[in-house]
Amino acid sequence: MSLTVIAQRMSSKSFQRLVVGLFLSATLALLAACSSSPKNGVNVVDRNGVAQRPAVTTGQYAVRRGDTLFSIAFRYGWDWKALAARNNIGAPFTIVPGQVIRFDGRSGTQPAGSTTRTVVSSSAGSKTTVIKRSATAPVAAAPLPAGPAPKGWGWPSNGILIGKFSSNGSLNKGIDIAGDLGQPVLAASDGSVVYAGSGLRGYGELIIIKHSDTYVSAYGHNRRLLVREGQQVKVGQTIAEMGSTGTDRVKLHFEIRRQGKPVDPLQFLPRR
């Protein structure tokens, strides 16, 4: 029934009350919808399922079983050389469970006079590792000169590109490639496997390859890993089987990091 017909059948005051009531109901519904939306007006989704945060520059981390210096650097946004130098760790950069890795410029020992505590997500599930912060102001890490990019980059999979790198790194720190379960995952360049495991939340079964002192690449969500830590690999070599560990569909999440910072893989991979 139209408002015109309703108005003809109702008194003037009753019709006015009806119109005001409808207006207030619509206004309240609109306000409720706004209050349930994010303050910025959009929902920001991390496509990789990994909490985005800046590099940790204070505190300490207790090494857990399965950790490597490279996986810790990858997890907390550090260049592995800088983290090794900060903790006086030399080649072959071996660490052991219980060893303390510091982020605040002092040696890897228990700080005297630690006053505050913060909790940083650990390797898997809801477990956490306590990072103790010192009252002393942190010392910023000195940037290291960037080396040349490795030659001979190749695509890690021949699947379909379904996710691109975000320009600011806040949504996707790499690219996502869809494929079939068990499809070969290939090394994108020559290098050494420095991590192979499932200890980094959101990446599932993950491989990290060091290509030079500056560049590493990462391959996440694999079904099965076919290489081990310390193994040398060549560009195009099969290193894993594509899977869906740590995500909701079969895909490869691929990253390239320069001095610990994510860069757009499409700037390195050949055009196709």
From TrEMBL:
**Origin superkingdom:** Bacteria
- Tell me which residues make up the LysM domain: 59-103
Which keywords has UniProt assigned to this entry? Lipoprotein, Signal
Q: Which InterPro entries match?
A: Cell_wall_metabolism_enzyme, Dup_hybrid_motif, LysM, LysM_dom_sf, M23ase_b-sheet_dom
Question: Cellular component GO terms, alphabetically?
Answer: cell division site; cell outer membrane
Q: Name one GO molecular function term.
A: metalloendopeptidase activity
Q: Which Gene3D superfamilies match?
A: Glucose Permease (Domain IIA), LysM domain
Q: Which SMART domains match?
A: LysM
Signal sequence annotation:
1-32
What the entry lists under Pfam families is as follows: LysM, Peptidase_M23
Q: Which family does it belong to?
A: Belongs to the E.coli NlpD/Haemophilus LppB family.
Q: Which PANTHER family match?
A: MUREIN HYDROLASE ACTIVATOR NLPD, PEPTIDASE-RELATED
The protein here is known as Lipoprotein NlpD
**Species for this entry:** Pseudomonas psychrophila
